Amino acid sequence: MAYDGSIGSTFYQNTPWFASEKIVSLKLKHHALDRHIAMFLCRLIHNQKNKYSYGYKWSVGLRMNRGKILLPVTDGGAPDFEYMAAYVRNIEEHILQRYREFISIVPPPKKIQSLNEKLWREFFIGELFRLEAGKSKGLTHLAADERGISYLGATNRNNAVLSFVRPVEDLIQRGNCIAFIRNGEGSIGYSVYKREDFIVTSDITCGYADFLNEFVGLFITTIADKVRGKYNFNYKRSDSRLKREKIQLPVTDDGAPDFAYMAAYAKNLVAEQYRRYLAYIDGE
Length: 284
Fold this sequence. Notes:
- By secondary structure, the chain is of the alpha+beta class.
- The protein folds into two domains: about 1-105, no CATH class; about 115-280, DNA methylase specificity domains (Adenine-n6-DNA-methyltransferase TaqI, Chain A, domain 2, Alpha-Beta Complex).
- Helix content is about 30%, strand content about 15%.
- It contains seven helices and ten strands.
- A hairpin with an 8-residue loop joins strand 3 (about 145-150) and strand 4.
């Protein structure tokens, strides 16, 4: 559990790990801890985080020892760990059943040409997309809201989502676009596809196109990420460089980008990944 920084963020770890000094390890005193019990407790502990802030830390010692959480109990008043585990298992099974139902209607992979069999050609980013710069000046100007709109920043993790914030109409970018990260040490040069609306920092430029959908976006971002090695702190991905950036794409016989092929290829990969995951969870 984090008692500084992301105060109250709580996670279950079932493998050996190490962490910074801002993390404290919690173990049950009188009961074995398993994944299901831990997930129940993590949610309750996480709900305490709004009590704390930079000026009022959840410090190790008296304040943490006196912290309280509400738990379901047995008739004798003891924590009902069996109920907690069963509650989480029921939620998991409900989610997995919905997943199985979803997988059952996903079309099986289609037979298409391999990547090596397709013709490829270079295209400029600027000729493929209408580019719009991000409008936000930073998270400090926005109100955090876990149920709000996603806020994108210069990170290659979590599909570039840094946080969730209260929507501000003038700052919202439309979804169904590719977000090109132009700045940020370690993430400059990456690209992500965004299906939903979002707010984004000025370190990111958004690319829109009529041909774009989720599967074409996944294909193109994978290709576009190959250029990230050319950028660094001293050689930024400026707007002008982004427009002149080249990516290789599969093409039709007349030399146009073969977006139908890109979508089919990405759909095949997604369908195969779904089925592999389903086989894994059913085998647990």
